[in-house]
User: Fold this.
Amino acid sequence: MAEKKVHTLLIVESPAKAKTIEKYLGPGFTVKASMGHLIDLPKSRLAVDVEHDFEPEYITVRGKAKILKELQVAANKAGNVLLASDNDREGEAISYHIQNAILKKNPQIQVKRIVFNEITPQAIREAVQKPGDISIPKVNAQKARRVLDRIVGYNLSPILWQKVKNGLSAGRVQSVALRLICEREAEVESFVPEEYWTLDVELSKGKTQFLASLVKYGEGKLELKSSQDVEDLEKKLHGVAFIVKEVKETEKSIRPRPPFTTSQLQQTAANRLGFTSKKTMQIAQQLYEGVNIGSNRIGLITYMRTDSTRISQTALQEVRAYLSKEYPDKVPEVPNYYSVSKDAQDAHEAIRPTMVEYTPDYVKPYLNKDQHRLYSIIWERFVASQMVPAQQKTISVDIQAGEALFRASYTITTEKGFQAVLHLLAAKETEKKLPSLKVGDVLTFVRFIREQHFTQGPARYTDATIVKALEEKGIGRPSTYAPIISVLLDRYYVVRKNRQLVPTALGRAINDLLVKSFPDVIDVNFTAEMETKLDRIEENGGEWVSMVREFYLPFRKKVDHVLETMESIKGVLDEETDYVCELCGRKMVKKLGRYGYFLACSGFPACTNTKSIPLADCPRPGCNGKIVARKKAKGRGKEFYGCTNYPACDFITYYKPLETKCPKCGWFLVEKSDKKLGTHKACINPDCDYLHSAEEGEES
DNA sequence: CAGTGAGCGAGCTTCCGCTTGACTT
Assistant:
């Protein structure tokens, strides 16, 4: 009897990963991707039996039946299956569900679980040698997480439908993100800026002039509250001698930063490149899936959804080899090691270039501008992370002038270290010079420079800072940071104004309601405590059912109470306007609908007239239409502005009309921004040259 | 950089976390 040839089906989550692994393993293996979860709760109902131990009702995810079937067929053919979804809680559940589906079709198939935390030939081969079993405690922890989130979301959302507006949503994660944004907004609003002044003095020694800042006067605290205070002080300093009292030199070593996690990448891309989290992830996905270089399609970066700064030994050796060739004097003897956050699930490496030889310059011809910029910061951050520190020297000079103490300082880099490799990520250097000074030197007074300031209140959240805050509090995961921001924007809970996230009236109303009624759930500690309990379940020390039950009973009671007693604020947020309904003469109100704000007759339901909000008059000669905001059909594309007389009038623009008309030609103005002029107002008329700098205007 | 292109809303919704393409019931 001939020996049957062993063939193995290996299942991972991502198709790009599948391709790479197939290459590493060679014949004898087929590698397929599940594309995430295949089995989940149905969307249309709670699907958790709260009467019977919270038993979840699982179905095949819409659109995934085909993939599941393919996996079952391939498993049958191979006879041998290795489940290799990510080595974390969600990955364990994915494997578990696939295993059940395969065994249901054919109980004879040999199914095992393997794990690896990096995609290198060695790591994969080792993992394949050590097949194990699915961890049921881990699966249970995921089940608890899933059921809890479903219960919270599907109980809180209907409260909002009943009390505020249909179609709204709330959940463990999004509602806390909204709360953070609302609380910050309250701080911004209550902040009262205070005036203060600073005083600098321009001094000279020999030919060199330099600035020193007032740091102290007499014994007390330095307080310059008004221009009068500064004037009084300047008078007191009239004619005094400026004498060098102390010269201090300090040296500082600056260590490179670790390679990127998802949250760090989003933060840095936001701050350095002005990308939203969503844009960063879209472009990172393109770099990960592969770019045509010559005739080869090459995945340029490792997986982009990770919470770890860990890198593989292979990658470490490669970057050290690269560095000893390119920067031989900047390679540390011992490789730099970065500790991984204790909250991290560590299923993937840090985000790094797959091949360090593909420098930003080398790949530039094959990438578009945004891809190139994002790749550059990933490459720079990774390479720099394995280089020696930079050395800085700061010289600080104290200058006595009567009772006043001024200080001049400057910093120079004495050793560039890892900074030698940074271009897009390079720190902005401020050129400052000091003459060589020693104690006792008498300096020549040139002039005082006074400046008015106001204390700055707390800053509103941006994509970068909300992601940072969420990660620090352990809320959300690398795969959800960008979607969290999107959901708040899509539901009009929050709007983006110059990159800042500002809550709308709707967002605040919802937050007030939720925080008042469910302070313990809409709380950063709720997730932290949940994670602790999930860890206990994972370690086999806790029952998932009792954990969920403990939460559910009081929660459901509160939900019922709120549904019964809370007053509805439906319609309260509708704004009155001066627009008059042309059908019945009643006033119209501004309401929020599925696609944004619109005008509706206040006589509803007697009069059901609705229309878009007119933003400007149509500038086409002879057209009496209004310019209104429109969106593309279903794709929820970018908002544009067109004429109400469409298709008779096909005027269109992507610039949002401003309130004011052009003083030159009467068309409407829009806000534009470019590198030369910055943000400015311009006329939409292509034949009109009206330009107006926004800074000159009354508003910023 | 240039040039871009549609629905009318009043309801049946919603969660979080995995992953990429894409049609209707």
